Amino acid sequence: MKYFPLLWSALWRKKARTIFTLLSITVAFLLFGMLQGVNAGFNQAVEKANVNRLITTSSIALTENLPYGDMAQIEALPGVARVAHATWFGPYYQDPKNFVFSFPVEPDRYFAIYPELVLPKEQLDAFIQTRTGAVIGADLARKYNWKIGDRVPLHSTIWTKPDGTSDWNFDVVGIYECPSDRAQESAFFFNYKYFDEGRSFGKGQVGWYIVQVKDPSQSAQVAAAVDKLFANSPDETKTETEKEFQQAFLKQIGDINMIVTYILFAVFFALLFATGSTMMQSVRERVPELAVLKTLGFSDTTMLTLVLCESLLLCLLAAALGLIAAWALFPMLKDTLGVVKLPTPVIIEGVGVAALLAFVTGIFPAWRAKRLDIVEALRG
Amino acid sequence: MSAIVSLHNVVKTYTRGKQTVEVLHNLSIEIAQGDFVALMGPSGSGKTTLLNLIGGLDRPSKGEVNVAGERIDQLSSGQLAKWRARHVGFVFQFYNLMPMLSAERNVELPLLLTNLSSAQRKQNVQAALAVVGLAERAKHKPAELSGGQAQRVAIARALVADPTLLVCDEPTGDLDRTTADEILHLLQMLNKDHGKTIVMVTHDPKAAEFASHQLHLDKGQLVEGSVHA
After folding, report:
1. Which of A228, B154, B175, B218, by CA, is between 20 and 30 Å from B160?
2. Is the Cβ–Cβ distance between A104 and A187 less than 8 Å?
3. A289 vs B118: CB contact, 8 Å cut-off?
């Protein structure tokens, strides 16, 4: 701590250069925080997947629907506890930018298979009994200030009605919560019956099935049994665990982990040269000053440590600014990702990367300071 | 008085490219504790080289260098750094202060290597600045000080850790006559009142008159013995 004024003054010897270097590192760490945050957000969603549940989709593509009649056959298989289904409705509210995650479901089946979604009994009953009823997540309700009793119109980008319109009206009858994962509180569920009777095409079909197994250790056998059941039929299925399904879903977007890694590698590789050259230049300019410190009795090791600490101070300060900015901006991605805050491991990883960056960019100038010959340096 | 600096048959050679230049030839000198010695001689005579050897900034190619009771030519780089911190205060021609640090922070630098607390360091810094008459300029940065004031700060920095020996390389070389005389009076006061042993390199015969002894070097050899000023 007693060396701090010395380090701080060295850092600000050339203010403009330090500010620009600081800014470039800050921007890099802002990018790091946002990208790694997105990556971690996706991974978190995958990790939270339930081990009891399997997802059955069409083997052709996720967008292909399956016959509603398959449900009874799946339910009859040994090892299956219960089955529910959902379909992608793809609507927006008032404006296309107000996208809503909405699914027609059979209320009793769906909420039984997802016990983590907490809905009061009377609201579930109202949902079952109200043809146009909808149950929404607490976060979605807060976002649009929707309350029980409100009539909400949604415009589906997929499903039209026989009259050619795509506007569907719903009555909010319940608001669910998900205490174990608040990111799940943004969905909009409504009655499958209302949907199936009202749509102009695809009647009697569902998007996918959710199969709850009695014993998670039997998941692979049950999944194989489901797919075997529909093998060689017009609607062959692909059944996988909820985790595998989510991973496959994410892979449709792209290998996010790889994309993030490549982008960050490129950013930090460029940063390495920028920061490294700043540190080298800074030490080169201060050779006589460093020589004076050695003259006063600062040892070679102390000089090495001081320059490394200077690099560490610069990188950690900039990384902190970048990560704080990412932390502040991250909630803006909530609608897209469902992740509400920058995961703590990303912040810890960021600090680690900053320390590594400081070491790599600081070690050569630090070594130069360590090896500095006093007499030569003072001679100029 | 006992010798605080003692050099025996010291040879110093430098290699520049393919050429080897012998700067000091079998030099032997002794400087007594409490002495104020002016090292004089033409450019290239080896004054600064000799000062660097006495201050532990450089090592001889041959011979022995004993300073403050230690055979410093045999110390490792780390030991020599510790020895300098404990025994030697340096004053340079161009002050060599840290431009971004205030006067008091500059003076504090040698104390960072000690185990003194922040309060004790502050107290010592104030005392050193008071000795050189610059207590009221403690918060000023070097760029806000005159040449003479900057050199006083440099002297305070050299003094603050209470070294055995003050080593001054042309301390008045960058100053006008009046300011130079003030600095030399200050050095004389430190020698007489505080008992500091001072070795000063200078080209200036008037500056040398402030010392109690003069040593003249030419071509790496002592050409005259001690001369009382």
Report:
1. B175
2. no
3. no
Verify whether the Cβ–Cβ distance A12 to B82 is below 8 Å: no
Q: Give chain B positions within 8 Å (CB) of A298.
A: 81, 85, 113
Chain B residues in contact with A302 (beta carbon < 8 A): 81, 113
| Rounded Cα distance, B173 and B163, in Å | 23
**Beta-sheet pairing, A101-105 with A187-191:** parallel
Q: Collect all residues from A whose CB is shorter than 8 A from any CB in B.
A: 2-3, 5-6, 9-10, 12-13, 288-289, 292-302, 374-375, 378
CA distance B175 to B94: 9
CB contact under 8 A, B96 and A2: no
Chains A & B: contacts with CB separation below 8 Å: 69
pLDDT tens column, B81-129: 999 999 999 999 888 999 999 999 999 999 999 999 999 999 999 999 9
Q: How far apart are CA A11 and CA A293, in angstroms?
A: 16
**Closest-CA residue in chain A for B55?**
A295
- Ranges of each domain in chain A: 4-45+255-379, 50-253
Q: Which residues of B touch A13 (CB under 8 A)?
A: 99-100
Query: Among all chains, which residue has been given the structure tokens 């960058």?
Result: B174
Are A12 and B100 an interchain contact pair (Cβ–Cβ within 8 Å)? yes
What digits encode the pLDDT tens for the residues A51-108? 789 999 999 887 899 999 999 999 999 999 999 999 999 999 999 999 999 999 999 9
Distance between CA atoms of A313 and A354, rounded to whole angstroms? 10
Token pair belonging to A190: 């409504």
Tell me whether residues A298 and B105 touch, CB distance under 8 A.
no
DSSP 3-state of A361: helix
Closest B-chain CA to A377: B57
A11-19 LR contacts (CB < 8 Å, sep 24+): A11/A310, A11/A313, A11/A314, A12/B100, A13/A282, A13/A285, A13/A286, A13/B99, A13/B100, A14/A282, A14/A285, A17/A278, A17/A281, A17/A282, A18/A278, A18/A314
To the question of domain B3-228 being in CATH 3.40.50.300, the answer is yes
Distance CA A173, CA A158 (A): 24
CB of A73 within 8 A of CB of A229? Answer: yes
For residue A296, the one-letter residue type is L
Closest chain A residue by Cα to residue B49: A375
The answer to whether the Cβ–Cβ distance between B90 and A296 falls below 8 Å is yes
Q: Over the stretch A241-274, which tens digit does the pLDDT of each residue have? A: 888 887 777 776 667 778 888 888 888 888 888 8
